[in-house]
Amino acid sequence: MTPTLRRKLEALAERREELERLLADPDVIGDGDRFRAFSREFAQLEPLATAMAEEKRARADLAAAQAMRDDPELAELADEEITAAQQRLARLDEQLMLLLLPKDSRDEGNLFLEVRAGTGGDEAAIFAGDLFRMYARYAERQGWKVEIESDSPGEHGGYKEIVARIVGRGAYSKLKFESGTHRVQRVPETESQGRIHTSAATVAIIPDVDDVDEIVINPADLKVDTFRSSGAGGQHVNKTESAIRITHVPTGVVVECQTERSQHANRDKAMKRLKAQLLDAERSRQQAAQAESRKLQVGSGDRSQRIRTYNFPQGRITDHRVEGLTLYDLPNVIQGDLDALIDRLAREHLADELARLTESA
To answer: Are 269 and 259 in contact (CB under 8 A)?
Structure first.
């Protein structure tokens, strides 16, 4: 570990000690907001303090083992203990560097999932439906809730577009690398000659964050349309113009909501999603500017990027962002078994962030 990173660790350890004193201060205890904020920060630093204490013990063990080498009768045992202590220190060094990585405050939250048919006509809409069901099944396995906000069915199945909110702890951390263009290679059901077609659909993962209320939108920048809902809900949704479509004119972002019975409720949900999209777009621009020199673009937020190919004839799925990430398990993946993909992408992202941390130190 470089001296710069070591100084960062020591500064965080000092901050934890300061927080420990503050949490015992009667003035802080009497101020609920400050006490909660300091308690959260203290809890976040606790794993780092534990790892640093263990590292201190490992260094002491290493020094003791090295001192044992002076005794010929203990030299062999000393070598074994030196090797064990060095291995512990190597693991702790990696653990401490991981703890230095900035935490994404959105990771534990919910998200908006948007799936849209791309090139490929009817087959693209069918594939968009397959992708949505894949994510819905994965969410079900995780115990998350899926709430459809708007959808536009395809003429021969699937969806031209579908938007849903996924509610569950850690949902965003698991699915945040799914944004981009997904390509499928297969023989469509509508193909009579048995030829393999290539179609595409785009996926957008947008964090549903608490700070969207901080975004101020000028009402003059909005174009609001109402229309009759086409979703579930009985005759009411088909007879009243309760569905809402909001267009943010300066950016061209369009959101719809048709799941609630009242126009007011649909507007509130649509506005929340619009704010989330605008906030996510701004953060994506900032990340793109920072990521220009990065080798790995996992999670860059570029939705035009082709990230994955699903080849049905070969049962193969390939993620193009990570070298060698090809699985021959497509039937299970499309049924929602995404763990192998998601875990590998998370590991690659961590490795990339560690490399950046080391380079900047």
So the answer is: yes
DSSP letter at 144? -
- Calculate Rg over the CA atoms of the chain: 26
Tokens of 65: 């083992």
User: Residue 197, SS3?
Assistant: strand
Q: In the beta sheet, which residues pair with residue 255?
A: 246
Cβ atoms of residues 158 and 148 within 8 Å: no
**Whether the predicted pLDDT of 189 surpasses 80:** no
Q: Report the distance separating Cα 178 and Cα 305, nearest Å.
A: 11
**Rounded alpha-carbon distances, angstroms, from residue 243 to 111, 220, 254, 255:** 21, 20, 13, 11
Residue with tokens 């309760």: 242
Residue 71, phi then psi, degrees to nearest 5: -95, 110
Residue closest to 202 by CA, chosen among 108, 307, 122, 283 = 307
Its sign, for the CA torsion 306, 311, 315, 316, is: negative
Write the pLDDT tens digit of every residue in 63-114: 999 998 888 888 889 899 999 999 999 999 888 988 888 777 788 889 999 9
The enclosing H or E element of 148 equals strand 145-153
Helix axes 3-22, 32-68, angle to 10 degrees: 130
Highest mean pLDDT of the ranges 181-185, 208-212, 302-306: 181-185
Tell me how long the chain is: 361
In DSSP terms, which residues pair with 311 in a beta bridge?
185, 316
pLDDT by residue (tens digit) across 318-360? 999 888 899 999 999 999 999 999 999 988 888 888 777 777 6
Q: How many CB atoms lie within 10 A of CB 112?
A: 22
DSSP single-letter state for residue 104: -
Q: What is the rounded CA–CA span in Å between residue 108 and residue 177?
A: 14
Q: Which two tokens stand for residue 15?
A: 């901050």
Beta-sheet pairing, 253-257 with 316-319: unpaired
